[in-house]
């Protein structure tokens, strides 16, 4: 599907029916219930673990939230408020390491803009705010979510052992920086 056609469907719910009928001949969705008769799927044992952010993590969250309240964001001129908030908080929820990388890129962009427009106080003000967030993100070496993951794995593995099941867990992440962090944490 080319760019022009994708724009016809992007964020246009009124066209979703048409899109579904176009792609139905190429892909389909099968649920677990539909295949249980002929595919042996292990029973899921979900474990929900709540955690509280550490003080530095909460401070970073608050600074990102404050940045999002700015009426103008020079670093993200074409991004809508909702999309930017979703992207930044989604990245932060993955790990502080992931958001640090994102902020590093934003700092670089704003530094380049600051050199091109040295007398623009808006650029220097925003750069200062982003640098502060980046420095804080960089200083956080331990994530509460990672610590809680280790506890959840202990609980889960104990439960699996009592059931006589294999000691396996599936951990999902979309972010490669978080994936590297988890690899290091679990090793």
Description:
With 187 residues, the chain is an all-alpha fold. It contains 9 helices and no strands. The relative contact order is 0.12.
List keywords for this structure.
187 residues, mainly alpha, flat
Briefly characterize the structure:
The protein is an all-alpha fold and 187 residues long. The protein has nine helices and no strands.
Beta-strand share of residues? under 5%
Percent helix range: 55-70%
Radius of gyration from the alpha-carbon trace, in angstroms: 22 Å
What series of H and E elements makes up the topology? HHHHHHHHH
How far is the N terminus from the C terminus?
A: 42 Å
Structural class designation: mainly alpha
Q: Give the rounded overall mean pLDDT.
A: 91
Topology:
Elements: H1 3-9, H2 16-23, H3 32-35, H4 55-68, H5 81-94, H6 96-116, H7 121-139, H8 144-163, H9 176-186
Helix pairs in contact: 4-5, 4-7, 5-6, 6-7, 6-9
